[in-house]
Amino acid sequence: MDNLSIFLCFVIGLTSYALIFFKKRYAYWKDRGAPYLEPTIPFGNLPMRRVHFRDIMEPIYEQKKPGAPFMGAYFFGTPVVVATDLNFIQNVLVKDFSNFHERGMYVNEEDDPLSGHMFSLDGEKWKSLRAKLSPTFTSGRMKFMFPTVVDVAGKFNSELSEILKTESELEVRDLLARFTTDVIGTCAFGVECNSLKNPNSEFRNYGVKILEEPLQGSLMQLFLMQYPKLGKKLHIRVVQKEVEDFFMGLVRGTIDYREKNNVRRNDFMDLLIQLKNGENLDGQSQKLGKVTFGEIVAQAFLFFIGGFETSSTTMLFALYELALNPDIQEKARQEIETVLTRYEGKLTYEAVKEIVYVDQIISETLRKYPPVVNLIRQAVRDYRVPGTKIIIEKGTQIFIPNFNIQRDPEIFPNPDVFDPDRFTPEQIKSRHPMSFLGFGEGPRNCVGLRFGRMQTRIGLITLLKNYRFRPCPKTPIPMVFDIIRPTLSPKFGMYLKIEKL
């Protein structure tokens, strides 16, 4: 047999094996009697082109079956669960959390130390870090950080006022990201970033690099989640090396300076230093155990990317909707003026709590534009779905498509209409508790949700008190989303006409 014949036999044999493998693999959900979406070799139910996470789930969610807890799907050759029923979602996130406390994210601390943060970690390591870091986000600590955020908002107001002297139609995405970057830089690292005055500050540049130049796209990240051992053998990173070097140097320098000079700022970094040294956190009666330097850097990195991007994006979409809905904008402005009059015009912690309509605007923005479009959990043991004979096997990943849920007309009538009154106390009580997942739910919800809401409230109140927002010719109508960024973001920026009041 000549070489060509041998090669052809090899190719035919390999192709036949692959077809048999996928045919058997793609019978997984059918064999278990679960509803599923028909897959295509070799991507399963993944698209063959680069898309956003939101676009991966939409066609699966749209095929949901009435009364079924989930849709079975395939990511490459791996069976996954796409949750479609709110009661099942409540079981996964809350009631049966002990069965689903892992996310199954790709973590490679050896090659990529910043990947070892609390959002991605699982098991005892996640549980330990969550217990240690939760006390840093209590309402008492938020009250302490409140004046710092207000101070940055004041600088933001001054800078915007200067810009408006020469132009009135502005790209606000970068402007808002510079505001939240300065907030996070001050509250997390005790560093005056000055990105409001200097758009090319180091902090801002690295924020842009993380989000606009990701090492891995959506499909590659899903591949790494399905095959983490292969990713580690190939030494694949998810965070750029220069980003790692920047944060390592920043945190090391901050810790060294503070410890040598006995500096205390009562910010996020102070709390991490206390944990590093095995000290009791202020107000805590028992020690929580030490954290390593590497763990400190990873958590500081998470706080940075989670704090500046999600809040700035929420403010961005809120201003977009307020520009398109001037009646809602004016109602919010009137409430702000009424409440602040009672506090002599000062934006206090107590005043912000009374400005409830702005909080409803934030919730409605998060409903329509959730920064994180899917929640992910992983079964840690075999789990029988209540009311069925279906077993979700250990290691199976569960995707909760909150973007699609929160735009489902059966849950939120007229979902494309922006209506903050969906979030009055009466309306919230009338809906299933899993219908809104803007901050996640259960023990693995967003640990920094208090801080995120606080800086978003302060930012929006400051802006609405001093400016009016309108659409301009460059305003993206309808909205087109960027497929490159991991969080939900407008593709062509966000231009608005701004008028100083």
Automatic annotation (TrEMBL):
Q: Which GO terms describe its cellular component?
A: endoplasmic reticulum membrane
Q: Where does heme bind?
A: C446
Localization of this protein: Endoplasmic reticulum membrane; Microsome membrane
Keyword list (alphabetical) reads: Endoplasmic reticulum, Heme, Iron, Membrane, Metal-binding, Microsome, Monooxygenase, Oxidoreductase
Q: Which GO terms describe its molecular function?
A: heme binding; iron ion binding; monooxygenase activity; oxidoreductase activity, acting on paired donors, with incorporation or reduction of molecular oxygen
Listed cofactors: heme
UniProt lists the family membership as follows: Belongs to the cytochrome P450 family.
Q: What name does this protein carry? A: Cytochrome P450
UniProt organism field: Hermetia illucens (Black soldier fly)
